Amino acid sequence: MNDDLVIIITAGLTATACGLLGPFLVLRRAALLSDAVSHAVLPGIVATWLLLHTRAPFAVIVGGAIFAVLCVLAIDGLRSTGLVRSDAAIGLVFPLLFALGVLGVTRYASGIHLDLDSTIYGEIAFAPFDVWTIGGVDVARSIVVIGSIAALNLAFVILAWKELKASTFDPGFSQTIGLRPQMLSRLMLVAVAITAVTAFESVGAILVVTLLIVPGATAYLLTDRLAVMVALAVGIGWIGAVAGYWGAVVGDSSIAGTMGLVCAVCFALALLVSPKYGLIATAVRRRRRARATATALAAER
Amino acid sequence: MSGAAALEVRRITVSYGARPVLWDVDATFPTGSLSAIVGPNGAGKSTLLRAALGLIAVDSGQSLISGHPARAALDHVAYVPQREAVDWDFPITVGEVVAMGRYRSTGWFRRVGREDRAIAAAALDRVGMAAYADRQIGQLSGGQRQRVFFARALAQETPLLVMDEPFAGIDARTQASLLELLGELRDEGRSIVVVHHELATVRERFDWALLLNVRAIACGPVSESLAPDMLARAYGTGAEALQWAG
């Protein structure tokens, strides 16, 4: 497989894995969770180093994932006390974990190079160089890993579709019909944590945070159907992957950065020209209404 | 168990922090009647409903639905939360919301079948909203939104309906037609418990009322539980009580 294709497919699969979950985060007002997770993994890396003395990718992913899951469950637990709102809960938990990580690094690992960038944050440009041979065929490791996560997320969202929809929309009601919204919320958050950590390792943190939030927020402006919103989020992520890669090659710039920029441009376009909720459409409607009112008032006189 | 009340709460106490919101509340809502929970703001009306259905933790007490512990009998109840409980900008259609009324009978991980969709459609038709099935819920007026919530509850086909302030901020015409509908449901043999704060309509349309102000002040037929001396105890005396009673 040629290198360009590996990078585009890796990014596209990351977009798929993230786009399936991102809309639910946006609707639950927990979009910043992905950013929290990107910092909360540091103590996991330190713990892995302390216990196993390794910076090997698999061990680091597992260590990071454990703390990522801890992070999202602590946020969910804090929120469910009713004493702390969602945004504050996110802001309370991840700095604590990050601080623990920083303390751990300075105390136990000051002699070695142990930080997020050198351990768990991957770089998508290197994806083609890390190859697994499966059944005699060379496949980029990132495609296998992220592809599996995307497939798991797809299965989760399809299987629990109506449950996720009802518990996101109306948690109180869904509890009375036996749906266990709290358990569903935790499952969703664990899926986000595992997706994020795995994808960090393949494509870097900024692209994951972007793909979990921006396509979902963009799709929200474009449709009134949840299913369409999820499909659009995945599609916009793919646009970011393809156009972003092309832009990075043409402009000789950072791949993850350009992909993120394309996603942001998609959002800005939706914000302006979305037929229903866009700023332009809203302004046109308002002006039309004002004119109609003026005409009606004039006719009454 | 025959002869059991549709909903009964026994000695329920709930507090938020140190402040009791409900104190040792006993109440019974008979089967086949249209009951109201009335009381001043902050009396704990919504909290009582949520506690009775096991949606929030209680400090003590228990609640029974048709004589069974509430948690084990939730399939007998259709719960209508306050309208503010949900995000009306959510990307979902009227038809999808009403179909949620069939989720319990559909079961986990299954798709809503044709028969269940027909039941949901009939429920939507009964509240006069059949033409709106494909609309996004945010495009509806307050009264229409409440009709949708009613339809979802109807679609659940439960013997007990429990509604939290369904008439708050609703236009008079919608309130009249929904009250009419509740009367019909009662006549069909269903039991209905509604949090409401307009005493005049409760007197006129309801059979039974719990008068609540943190404690249960009176619970019984409307003529008894909303007697002037009871109202004075719930709302205070003098002008204030008269205003509420009016």
User: Taking Cα atoms only, what radius of gyration of chain B do you get, to the nearest Å?
Assistant: 18 Å
Rg estimate of chain A, integer Å: 22 Å
The span between the termini of chain A is 75 Å
Which sequence of SSEs, written as H and E, runs from N to C of chain A?
Answer: HHHHHHEEHHHHHHHH
InterPro entries (chain A): ABC_BtuC-like (IPR037294), ABC_TroCD (IPR001626)
Keywords (chain A): Cell membrane, Membrane, Transmembrane, Transmembrane helix, Transport
Family (chain A): Belongs to the ABC-3 integral membrane protein family.
Pfam families (chain A): ABC-3
Structural overview:
Chain B: Pfam families: ABC_tran (PF00005). The complex is a heterodimer of chains A (301) and B (246). Chain A has 301 residues and is mainly α. Chain A has one domain: ABC transporter involved in vitamin B12 uptake, BtuC. Helix content of chain A is 78%, strand content 3%. Chain A has a two-stranded antiparallel sheet with strand order 1-2. The mean pLDDT of chain A is 91. In chain B, helix 4 crosses helix 5 and helix 9 crosses helix 10. Chain B has 246 residues and is an alpha/beta fold. Chain B is globular, with a radius of gyration of 18 Å. The model of chain B has no long low-confidence stretch (mean pLDDT 91). Helices cover 35% and strands 24% of the residues of chain B. Chain B contains ten helices and ten strands. Classes of the chains: A mainly alpha (301), B alpha/beta (246). At the A-B interface, helix 8, helix 9 and helix 12 of A face strand 6 and helix 3 of B.
